[in-house]
Each structure stands twice: as structure tokens, then as C-alpha cells.
Amino acid sequence: MSMMESEALGRVRRTERRQFNIVRFSAVALLALGLILGVLRELDFRAQAADAARVQADIFAGAVSAPLAFEDRPTLLQNLRAFQRDPEIAEAIVYGMGGEQVALRPSSEFQKLPLQPGARRVQGRLVVTRPVIEEGVHLGWVRLVAAPDPLLRVLGRYAAIGLMTVIATLLLWFAGRMALRLEQRAGQLEAANARLQDEMAQRARAEEALRQSQKMEALGQLTGGVAHDFNNLLTVIMGGLETIGRQLAKLPGGPESARMMRARDMALHGAERAATLTQRLLAFSRRQPLQPATLDPNKLVQGMGDLLRRALGETIELETVLTGGAWRIQADAAQLENAILNLAVNARDAMPEGGRLTIETANASLDEAYADKVPEGLTPGQYVMIAVTDTGSGMPPEILNMVFEPFFTTKEVGKGTGLGLSQVYGFVRQSHGHVAIYSEVGVGTTIKIYLPRRLGEEALAEDAQPINTDLLTGDERILLVEDHDDLRSYSAGILRELGYEVCVARDGDAALGCLDSGFVPDLLFTDVILPGGYNGRQLADAVAERKIDVPVLFTTGYTRNAIVHHGRLDPGVDLITKPFTFEQLAEKVRRVLDRAAAEPRTP
Amino acid sequence: MRAKALLVRLMAFALAAGGAAPAGAQPSDAAIKAAFITKFPAFVQGLPDGAPLNVCIVGPDSFGSAIERSAAVRVVVRRLAVVTPTSGCHVVYATGGARQSVRDALAIVAGAPVLTITDGGAGPTRGMIHFVVAGERVRFHVDTLQASRSHLQLSSKLLALALSVRQ
Ligand SMILES: Nc1ncnc2c1ncn2[C@@H]1O[C@H](COP(=O)(O)OP(=O)(O)OP(=O)(O)O)[C@@H](O)[C@H]1O
Ligand SMILES: [Mg+2]
């Protein structure tokens, strides 16, 4: 289309040029024609003038022949005067046979010219010399000098050619201007065309990017739904396996129970791996509940040193370039570590022969121009960049678009899940950040994570105090709300095993029924998503309305907006993500109860 | 008026400038007549063609070699005592000698295409052209009657210069 357009444009320009050339050629031809005509006219005029003068000179010769021959000076002078009265004749001169001359004027240069018959121009004046002959007898010479042409007649003679010249010149001038304007217009057209094509290309790119982000969104919805179901199942499976383990431990040892224990361990291991995958899928779909905290990015990267070195192996050199005065960020520390680790592992896989991995932090301001180019949307402002660069194989441009898609991998079956970068992407997007990827085949890859700067002065998140696992039991009363039957009984089993008194409910109404029956809970442990009139958040509010001051522990496989604002937990809300293990639940419950006891909440 | 005055002065100048004869001295009347004699045929029609021009001087000759010297054309001057119809003259200049008077000489060639010239100094008898000296200038009378009798036509230019014309 654009090719055709520029071709058409070129054709128009060529036609215009041709037309202009025709005009220019015509003008030049006109000018040349005018000159030629003028010259011809002038020559013709001169020839005619010469002829006329010759005729007149002959008449003159005839008139003076007799007085000349018979030396009748008075008659001669009379005739001379008669001729000189003609306004077109400036001088009339008569020469005798011996060259002696008779003229009315004091001798002029015209009198001294040699006596040769004929007409010629001397100083722009026509001079005609004729012999005086009677019956073949040569008696002398006459000479007529024409008066200079009156200005008016000269003008008249040259007016036509002058006019023609002026017209031709004007024509040339117009044509030149026209050509200039045409040229300018063509230039403008071309520029406009180029601009248009540029815009079209830009729009095409933007559309492509938008399609890509829409695809990612759709994929996220799909995988999120599947992952959520899997999560519930995995929680049950893992719970069951843990219970088996605990029961097996109580049995007397023996080869049989040892074999069962190994089988259980393997099953648990598989389930845990499956749980990691579902976590990543959830992360990609941005439905993974995040617990953002205020972080120092440098400290986080430094803290990963050991982990990274172990992951990278000995052939890969690890370099960290940390900017001084890095801004704080607001992000889920565990997930950020996860993301960096995923990038490091990818880098390692891209450098089988070894190489160098550089992790860099920097403060960055992303302006509107940059933000506008991010199709999935980005708020311009201050960010902290964490860049992971390797000297590995790099990626061809055509796969750069696809690497963030879940399950996209170039690795052998069983080696890569294709979910590493999906986690990075989903997590960063969910944290209101941005991922950029730069890669060149054979040179290496840089992936930059931008996370929004955290403004405000609150303290950095403290590392949680380790809890004595032996002291995870308790006798408090817990209101457990969970719609998934297996999961409800699994959670209730754990809590009861730990010594808590539990009232179970499958939805909000049932939970309120518990309260109505006189159950006063010390902790509300509720799924975020519930069937019926209440979701977890609303249920907590309903409980609070009954003047029951109780801490709330939420659980979820994934969340929408109930307790998580845009995927991030409100401050002061506790959450345990599915699937959870016996220990995780025991520890979380104990921690929430202990904190509530330490700092009683005011209603 | 001024232009006319200027013209008069110019004329005077031209006369002064152009009037000088190339020889320096004023030519004699005889020399002038000699020159005229060879020029008359150019203003006459009816003379038989042929060069050179035969000029016959019938009677005493006062020119000497003046005619040959001042001739405008190739000329043969024959000095005759008596002219006859067969003398072959184009021009007869009759001065009236002892053997043949001017009148006789003219009578002999009358009717033949011969231009006859006479001179006032040689007697009153006039030929077709008759020299006189008037106002110190050599001038002439013209007789077209005699000329037409001899089937000659004298040019009007010549008539215009003549002192008198008989026709
Ligand atoms: N640093 C890198 N250098 C070269 N290629 C990379 C790099 N990072 C990712 N890739 C390419 O992107 C693909 C997707 O990466 P991703 O982390 O999403 O999945 P994976 O690494 O294949 O699988 P997993 O992370 O589960 O092991 C990889 O298979 C690889 O082809
Ligand atoms: Mg990977």
C-alpha cells in the first residue's frame, strides 16, 4: 500500500516535472524564435533600407549627372539641396571623376570613405555610394548618408521582439516559480506520506503489543482458574500425606513403615513441586496474594548472594552493581526473590559454558513518553530498576514476545516448565511495575524489573522472629469458615490436633450461626471467597459489627478484590495462602493469636 | 530662418571647398569645351553605337590634345578640312575653315545621326549645340529642331542646363 502510494506520488511528480519542462522548453523556444525573427527582421529591414537607399542614390545620380558633367555648379547645388531636404538623408555628396567632391556639409568622415559602389553601414548609418553614369559614360560618383533612425522607429522595429523577450522571460520566471512550488509541494507530500507511513507502522506495532498483552491477560484468566482448583486439591493431598506421615511416625519402626515413609515422602515431594507450579501460574495470572512490604532493594539482592551462587554453579561469575542511595520499594520480598532467582536460573541455562551474571540496581524515572509505549499500561514516575544481565546465548527477536507466556520454553520436555518468566511478569505487573527485555543472539540478555518507589518513612519490614515449633499448640477458640468440604475438614483436623476449639462453617451465614449459638472466637480463620451472601472480608466486618473484637486470618488460593486491593494485601491483614502445610498453618495461627494478645486491638 | 541661414553658409563653404580644380589653376575655356565635347554624346540618343567615339574637328583646331586628355570615353579625334557624309563622325565640331564653312559642314551632315557642335567664337551659325561664354562660364544653346531632323534626341537634362533651347 505504501509502496503503491509512493509510486503514485513519484508518477505525479514525474508528470509535473515533464509539464514544467514543456513550459520551460516553450519559453526558451519562444525566446529563441523571437531572437531569430528579430534578427531576420532586422536583416530584412536593412536590406530593404539599403535597396531603397540605392534607388534613391541612383535617382540622385541621374539628377546630378548633367550639372556634374557640364560643371554647372548652381544647378548641381540646387539638386543637392533638393535631396538634402529629404529628412531621411543626412548628407548628399557628389564626386567628380577626379574625386573632387561637392557637399553641403563641412567635410565629415563619410566624405572621405573610399569610392566603392554599394551600400554599407558605417557607425550605424547607411552609406550608399553609386557611380554617375550616362549612356555608359562614367561621369563621377554620388553618395547618400541616411539619417540616423528616429528613436520611435527603432523602438517600433524592436518592440515586437522586445515584447516577445519579455513574455518569454516572464514565462520562464513563472515556470521557475511554479516548478519551485511544485517541488515544495511534492516535498511536503512526501514528508506527509512518510509521516503517515511512520504513524501506520507505529500503530501496527502498538496494536501488536496490545494484542500480546491481551493474550497474556486471557492466558492469565485461564491459568488462574485452573490453578485455583489445583490449589485446593493440592492442599488436601498434602494435608493427607502429612497426616499419613505423622501417623506413620507414631507406628513402631520397621522396614515396612520405612518403605511407606519413603513413598509418602516422594508423594509429598511431587505435591510440593506441583504446588510450586501452581504458585507460578497464580503469579502469572496476578492472582497470587502478595504481602508487600517496604524493602531496600540493595539489601534484598545482597541477601540473595549465597542462594544465587549456589544456583549458578562455579563456571558463572556473579557480579552485583548496587547503586548508592537506592530508593525503597514496596513489594513482596519472597516473590521478588523468587523472580530474581528465576532470572538467574534462566541466565545459567543460557550460559552452559560459563559466563558472567550481573545484577544491578538503579533508581530510574520513567517519563510519560516511556510509559506511553507500554501497552499494558504504566504510571510514569519513580522506579527502582533491578537488572539481571548475562553473557549467554541470547534470544532472537521473534521469541522475545513469547517468553513471558506461560509454558513457553525452548528447553527439553521435563527440563523447563516455561513458567519462570511468567512468574516474573505476573509478579512485577501485580506490583505495579514493569519488565523490559533486551537480548541479542550470541551476546547476551538483560532483563530489567522496574518496581515503584516507596515514598514514606516507615521502618523496613523486620524479619519475622523464629517461633519455637514445639510451642505451636493452643487452646483458643477458632471460627473456621471454608466452603471446600475436604479442605474444611483438613484445616479443622489440624487445628483440633493442635488443641484449639473449632467451630466450622461452610459460608458466612453458618459462621454467624456459630456466633449465635454462643461461640465466642479468639480468631476468625476464613476463606476469602465464600458462597452465599458474604465473602471473607464482609464476614469479618459482620463479626466486628457484633462488637466481637477478633483477629482475622484469611486464606485463599487466589484472590480477587475482597481482601486484596489490586492483588496486594491491606496492611494489618493476615493471610495464609493455599496450599499450606500443617506446620505453616500451626505457625501462622499461633503468630496471629500471640500478636493479638500482645497488643489488644481497640474496636 | 536660422536653418536657412546655416544652409546658405554651408553652401558658400561647399562652393569654396569643392570649387577648387584638381590641377590647381583655373582651366581654360578651351579645355572646358574639349571636356564637354566628349561628354555630350552621353546625353544624346540616336547616335550609332560604337567605340571609340569619333570626334571630327572641321576647320581650324584650337584644342590641340585637350580633347584626348579630358575625354570621358575612348575617343578618336579627326581633324578634317572637309567633312563628307562618309567621314564616319559621331560628333562634328565645325569651326569654319577655308575649304568648308560652318554652314556647309552642317549641311553636309544634316539628316545623318551626327551631333553637331558650333562655337559662338567661330561665327553665328549654330549647330545642335552652340558654345558661348557667359558670365565667365562656358555655356551652350541647344537646338532640338536640328537634332530631331537628324533623328537625334537630346536629353532633358541637357536642355535643363542650356542657355536657350530652340525647338
Ligand atoms: N537469560 C536468557 N537467555 C536466553 N534465553 C532465555 C533467557 N531467559 C529466558 N530465555 C528463554 O525463554 C524461555 C522461557 O523462559 P522461562 O523462564 O519462562 O521458562 P524456562 O526457563 O524454559 O523454564 P523454567 O523456568 O521452568 O525452567 C526459555 O526457555 C529460554 O528459551
Ligand atoms: Mg526459567
From TrEMBL, chain A:
Coiled coil (UniProt feature): 179-216
Keywords: Coiled coil, Kinase, Membrane, Phosphoprotein, Transferase, Transmembrane, Transmembrane helix
Positions where 4-aspartylphosphate occurs in the chain: D527
Catalytic reaction list: ATP + protein L-histidine = ADP + protein N-phospho-L-histidine
Superkingdom classification of source: Bacteria
EC class (word): transferase
Keyword match Magnesium: no
One protein family per Pfam: HATPase_c
GO molecular function annotations of the record: phosphorelay sensor kinase activity
EC number: 2.7.13.3
Every Histidine kinase domain range: 225-455
Start and end residues of each Response regulatory domain: 477-593
PROSITE patterns, alphabetized: HIS_KIN, RESPONSE_REGULATORY
TM segment ranges: 21-40, 155-175
Protein name: histidine kinase
Organism classification: Bacteria, Pseudomonadati, Pseudomonadota, Alphaproteobacteria, Caulobacterales
From TrEMBL, chain B:
Source species of the chain: Phenylobacterium deserti
Pfam families documented for this protein: DUF4154
Domain of life assignment: Bacteria
Protein name: YfiR family protein
Signal sequence annotation: 1-25
Record keywords, A-Z: Signal
Tagged with keyword Signal: yes
InterPro entries found in the cross-reference section: YfiR/HmsC-like
